[in-house]
């Protein structure tokens, strides 16, 4: 309880409403940080998928070109079935998700690396707000206990039950 009183004095919370307002503000910042972090993680996941399929397309493009130039296409397809299927899967993904334009792997990987760095910074911010919110919650609960707010609420609930 003494730590709570010191904390309140050090941070200049004059009233219970000031403390509640600070808790509300930090909760909103925490929610925003969480949404931003999730959006970045979703974009990284999307980029990883794009890197996978574009890489698959690029790696097997030469085999597909050889297939187009082969005299015996049936035999060539049997010998290179896996590579051709991977190529076709890559082409299908590109057509459906990237509007038939093939981005460069280098560009995709560079964007992903930037986002990974950004994600680390966003995670640090997220953790800061999370810990600060928890700290303010604990202080708020301690203030309620000191002021006897919990006991008053408990008494009023008990009276409502008795009536």
H/E series: HHHHHH
- Helicity, as a percent range: over 70%
Helix/strand class: mainly alpha
Distance between the termini: 35 Å
Q: What is the average per-residue confidence, as pLDDT, rounded to a whole number? A: 89
Could you tell me the number of beta strands?
A: 0
The total domain count is 1
Total number of helical segments?
Answer: 6
Major beta-sheet overview? none
Strand content: under 5%
Shape: rod-shaped
Please give the radius of gyration in angstroms. 29 Å
- Low-pLDDT residue spans: 154-163
Describe the structure.
The longest helix is centred in the first third of the chain and has 54 residues, at 16-69. The chain has 163 residues and is mainly α. The chain has one domain. The chain contains six helices and no strands.
What are the defining features of this structure?
163 residues, 6 helices, 0% strand, mainly alpha, rod-shaped, disordered C terminus
SSE order and pairing:
Blueprint: H1 2-10, H2 16-69, H3 73-79, H4 81-97, H5 105-147, H6 149-162
Helix pairs in contact: 2-4, 2-5
Short description:
The protein is mostly helical. It is built from six helices and no strands.
């Amino acid at each position: 309880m003494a730590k709570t009183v010191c904390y309140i004095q050090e941070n200049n919370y004059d009233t219970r409403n000031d403390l509640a307002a600070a808790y509300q503000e930090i909760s909103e910042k925490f929610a925003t940080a969480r949404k931003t972090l999730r959006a970045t993680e979703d974009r990284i996941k999307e980029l990883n998928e794009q890197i996978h399929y574009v890489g698959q397309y690029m790696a097997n493009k030469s085999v597909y070109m050889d297939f187009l130039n082969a005299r015996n296409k049936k035999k060539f397809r049997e010998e290179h079935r896996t590579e051709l299927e991977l190529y076709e899967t890559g082409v299908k993904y590109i057509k459906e998700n990237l509007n038939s334009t093939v981005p460069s792997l280098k560009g995709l990987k560079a964007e992903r690396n930037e986002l990974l760095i950004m994600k680390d910074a966003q995670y640090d911010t997220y953790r800061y707000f999370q810990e600060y919110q928890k700290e303010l919650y604990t202080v708020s609960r301690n203030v309620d206990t000191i002021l006897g707010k919990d006991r008053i609420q408990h008494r009023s609930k008990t009276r409502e039950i008795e009536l």
